[in-house]
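ugh ok so i messed up the first submission bc i forgot one of the chains. this is the corrected input, ALL of the components this time, i swear. 385 residues overall. if the numbers dont match what u have on ur side tell me asap before i send this to the collaborators (the ones from the other lab, u know who)
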Amino acid sequence: MHRFIALFALMLVFCWGPGLSWASGQGQDPHLTTVADLELAGPVAKPAAAYLGVPAGEGAVRLSQVKAEFLLVEVFSMYCPYCQAEAKNVNALHALLQKSPAAARVKMLGIGAGNTPFEVEFFRDKYAVPFPLFPDAEFACHKSLNGPGTPYFMLLKADGAGAFAVVFSHLGPFGDPGKFLDTMLAKAGLK
Amino acid sequence: MPRMIAVFAVWVVLAAVPALAGAVDAGHIYDPGQLKSVDSVLKVAVGQQAPDFTLPAVGGNHVTLSSYQGRKNVVLSFVPAAFTPVCSDQWPGYNFARELFEQRDAVVLGISTDNTPSQYAWTKEMGGLWFPVLSDFWPHGAVSSAYGVLRSSGVSERAIFIIDKAGVIRFIDVHDINTRPDLGLIVRELGNLK
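and heres the new structure output, hopefully the right one now
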């Protein structure tokens, strides 16, 4: 038993140090409780517009224009290796959400921190991302969110007055998409 | 014993996460803060033959620019320093977008004024790069100076030079050192080459 405990402690030392990279240095969890009505840069393609219930076209849209009670927002970057590695899981999360009873109440979107429209489009194409992604080339949204590390996930609840309460947030890869969705929906009282 | 095996399996999964290719541990990044956007005077121009050079690469070999003539378009990517914030995702981004360069018959040559051992440690932490990383350490910054992108602090600007298969400079972006050049612009300019 002592050897078992010693082995486990050794493993923790090895794993936790470097494993904190998305949560230390450059990227922190801002632990926000509210989020402003962010402006999402256009263009908004027709499928994205139809999903979110916002106007299609070149113009920007605001979070508050999205027709949903809850918004699941991923802050990512094309340049972020963790975001690249997590892309399949995030797609699976979206698929599970769409199949769940909460689908009509929760919409999902991504914000590409520091990414130009080309870079967001390349990321979308490479991973066949099925939900809307918005460029944030000048880090305007990212700064408004106090500069979280990536990937960063937030479940937001609209207050009806243009602001959003952060119901749940998570920094870094989330592991099993089903468990992650269950956790989020439970926090939101949707399960 | 089965419990030990289970713990070991968990450890393997956890240990794999930080080993992701391209992930430089944020704790290893030195942030110099906001710098003067550009601190040099360009010495070359679009339409001019690119100054030739030979520099040592991380792999132990030497790379000569003119060796690509007639074979490949070249994207010279000067960056200021290893283990700094913007550089540490710019080049992994070019790893991610490798096919965009290859589809346009282009190779990237990454250059900084760091010495080779520093570049080796940095690129190893990035999980390796598909393109050569060259050291302009000695004579210090000679190539950066020849192109007019050596800053007064001794590091290179964050600059992109696109050179066609004839060895002619076709595009220059001496970028704000604090921000990343748009990948889309580089790809578009490569697409404009004959």
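quick check: The beta strands of chain A are 34-35, 39-40, 61-62, 70-76, 106-113, 133-136, 152-158, 164-171. that seems consistent at least. The CA atoms of residues 72 and 108 of chain A lie 5 Å apart.
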